[in-house]
Amino acid sequence: MGNTMLWTKTFIPTLREIPQEAESLAHQLMLRAGLVRRLMAGVYSFLPLGLRCLNNLCGVIRQEMDNAGATELLLPALQPRELWLKSGRDKEMGEVMIRFTDRRGRQICLGPTHEEVITDLLSSHISSYKQLPLILYQIQAKFRDEIRPRFGLVRACEFIMKDAYSFDRDEEGLKKNYRLIFEVYNRIFTRCGLDFFSVEADPGVMGGSTSHEFMVVSQDAEDAILACPACRLARPFKEGASEHCPQCKRELEKVNTLELGHTFKLGTKYSLSLGANFLDEKGSARPLIMGCYGIGVSRVIPAIIECNNDKNGIVWPPEIAPYQVILLALDTTEEKIMQAACALYAKLKSAKVEVLFDDRDERAGVKFNDADLLGIPFQIIVGRDTLKDGKVELKVRKSNERIKDKAPEVIKRLSLLAGKG
Ligand SMILES: [Zn+2]
């Protein structure tokens, strides 16, 4: 990703009005800030700013997964339906899975998930206990024939997921990897600036024994949990049941939530049906013990926005922000202002600060509004007023704090605060 960009050279179609198609606050802001556009119901294009946020999020995920010893690969979206018939999930998936027959007569589906494909892959390449344990993951598009796509990226027909799979020789190994990824997820969602809960859940169509959902409080709710208002201890919501916190005895409250991540102890469900075995020390064949771990990457973006906004727009957590700094030249027709802004832009570029330069010939009010809407953490304002004393203004988007200082001082401050190298 490039570090710097001129607004006039990129594509950021911001909107002043609230678009009609937006059913939720987060989706309104995504459309208004020019992050995404709808192609058809449930199908979205990521525009340049949205893609930068998505890439930053994927960067956080990759860093945490790799640190935990997982390795990335990329599996195909096109899958032979035969594998789903073998695992028994062709029927379970029902109408949700998109299926078709290609010109060669092959029955194909667009992957809603990849347990079958990865188990099939490992069945021919794992032979010995010495190759275990193993954790593999991918970040890839998934497909679902949603009858009612909703809330923009939240419930879409094409979406991006991070799916990880662990392979162990025994339950003990699975337990260890499950715990490991559970902690990885806590770190990822914390770095995303999310207020989240992890709740024990029903494994459902995935099968297996234990599963946990990572939920965020949301008005784009698909689910609900019961949570203690004091201890934040959470459990699945059951209609009609009044429950009290085992710790502080307060009554648990119903909270509407959106699922962002899900972890499953699969056990041998897929390795048995797809014949994925390894040889143990005694040379006897045993099925791989599996776990799978998903994050709905593209729906994490609206969840972050819902947790991080104010009346003027988005307030990105720095790790996910499309740029760290937006530079505003308030009057592009005035040579002195443009000279000062261009010099500052060049210096920020060499200090490796990620900066978007608003070089549009627009009124100051439009630029201020757009800068707040975009939610980039720091704004540098160069205008007639600031240049009078040879200074520029630095505004912190989140706190609204404003500092006037000489350009080199501002750059020094920003490379400390925002420089990601
Ligand atoms: Zn409590």
What would you note in describing this structure?
The protein is α+β, with helices and mostly antiparallel strands and about 425 residues long. It has 12 helices and 24 strands. About 30% of the residues lie in helices and about 30% in strands. It has helices at about 25-30, 50-65, 80-85, 90-95, 115-125, 170-190, 270-275, 295-305, 335-350, 365-375, 385-390, 405-415; strands spanning about 5, 35-40, 45, 70, 80, 100, 105-110, 135-145, 160-170, 195-200, 210-215, 225, 235, 255-265, 275-280, 285, 290-295, 310, 315, 325-330, 355-360, 380, 390-395, 400-405. Helix 1 (about 25-30) packs across helix 8. The longest helix has 21 residues, at about 170-190. Strands 4, 8, 9, 10, 11, 12, 13, 14 and 17 form a 9-stranded mixed sheet that branches. A 6-stranded mixed sheet has the order 1-21-20-22-23-24, with helices on both faces. Bound molecules: zinc ion. Zinc ion binds near residues 245 and 248.
Summarize the structure.
With 421 residues, the protein is of the alpha+beta class. Helix content is 31%, strand content 29%. It has helices at 25-32, 48-67, 81-87, 89-93, 115-123, 171-191, 269-273, 297-307, 335-350, 364-374, 384-388, 407-417; strands at residues 4-6, 36-40, 43-46, 71-72, 78-80, 98-101, 107-110, 134-143, 158-168, 196-200, 211-217, 223-227, 234-236, 253-267, 277-279, 285-287, 289-295, 309-310, 313-314, 325-329, 355-358, 378-382, 392-396, 402-405.
